[in-house]
Amino acid sequence: MGGINRLRAEVQDCPLNSANVYEPVCFTWTKNRKTGISVILPTRKTEDDRPIQQTCLVVVHNTETLYWGALPTSHSISGAPRRQISNLEAVVPAADLPIHDNQPARTARINGISVRNDILFTNDKGEDKRSIQKRSEKALQKLLPALQRVLLPAETVLYIARAQSPLTVLEQLTAGWWTRLLAASAIVITNKRLLFFPVKRDGSWRESVRSLQWGDLEEVKPNGLLVRNVTFKSKNGTKTTYTNFRRADAKKIAAIATALLPAASGEVTAAHGFVQLCPDCRNALTEGQYFCSGCGLTFKNEKTMVRRSIFLPGGGYFYTGHPLVAILPAIVEAVLVLELLAFVFAGLTAPQAVPNLLSTVLVLGVFWGLETAVTILHCRRYVRDYIPEKRDPARVRQEATVKVSG
């Protein structure tokens, strides 16, 4: 408790150049082996007799200050402590926040990426495992282009896990093996947030990313017996379940969340949940608008996908960048269309057979419609991952010139 007494003394001794100063109010609390105090700094009055308060959240672990962050208010007090953080973005879990009691924080750099070896290479009990280290190093290498673009300054990678993106009940009922394969995701956990990257079969990035700040996350709940799933409950009330985790990964994520969720309680953003990010400039994208207002990057859109799915066999899968998956649906749709045309032609050449052909054409039409609807259903999900269109070479050269000159 020496750390708390020291912090309380620092707050009380803080000089304030104002009148009507009152003593600080300190609320001591303990949670998950961490002790902290919520401090309401002295209240004073302005010229128009309006009260001003500033609330700070201080977290202490083993008498060591992990962070001291000011929760934003409409006003601030002059003469606040020099160690005070003045903006909400800085009130995030520290990169060296202890996760396992048996492991000291070990931060290193791998290919320019800051990582926590004591978390990335250990199991949920904090035990070093060579197999986990090899798998994590491979995953980190595959995601290097994504992390180099997306990570923020002072952001450290804590853990990487593979899973499957959420599928609706209808998508699961109509899913073939390829749909589950194409729903593969890599989840990168950092000290600031969770990053969800759709990936290919080999683990390489599909140039799409969703972000969830720790402060916007209310609960992380592993569930399932045979197959481990993890449900992420956001502050806006939505629950998003990623499936097919390794059992060890699900336990590890739960262990990390136990430590980080209390530490990030003051880091709530306006989104209160998941945010889709531009893969080029990290700007938050608007749902249903397939372009980035920050850098101008355009994404594949639903209208074009629907048109191609209707008029081209397998066109939706080709449009979303899945040519191998498109082959089987393309063959099935092409056969159905050819049979439809053949029966229609037969009806035109033999009018007496039209009554018998109508039922056959109707059945084939229904099958073609169902096949096309399933293609649209699945491809709509891929489009909503915000897949970038082919970049303009002139724009790429211009951006490269700007980076070099900068």
Notes on the protein architecture:
The protein is an alpha+beta fold and 406 residues long. It folds into three domains: 2-90, no CATH class; 107-277, Roll (PH-domain like), CATH 2.30.29.30; 302-383, no CATH class. The chain has twelve helices and 16 strands. Helix 8 packs antiparallel against helix 11 (354-383) and helix 10 packs antiparallel against helix 11. The longest helix is centred in the last third of the chain and has 30 residues, at 354-383. Residues 1-47, 49-91 and 399-406 have low confidence and may be disordered.
Strand content: 15-25%
Mean pLDDT: 76
**Structural class estimated from helices and strands:** alpha+beta
Distance between the termini: 49 Å
Largest sheet: 5 strands, antiparallel
In order across it, which strands form the biggest sheet? 9-10-11-12-16
User: How many DSSP H or I helices?
Assistant: 12
Q: Tell me the number of structural domains.
A: 3
In the predicted model, the low-confidence regions spanning at least 5 consecutive residues are 1-47, 49-91, 399-406
Helix and strand run: HEEEEEEEEHHHEHHEEEEEEHEHHHHH
Radius of gyration: 27 Å
Helix fraction, binned, reads 25-40%
Count of extended strands = 16
CATH-wise, what's the superfamily of the largest domain?
Pleckstrin-homology domain (PH domain)/Phosphotyrosine-binding domain (PTB)
Dominant shape: elongated
| CATH hierarchy, class of the largest domain | Mainly Beta
CATH topology annotation of the largest domain = PH-domain like
The CATH architecture name of the largest domain reads: Roll
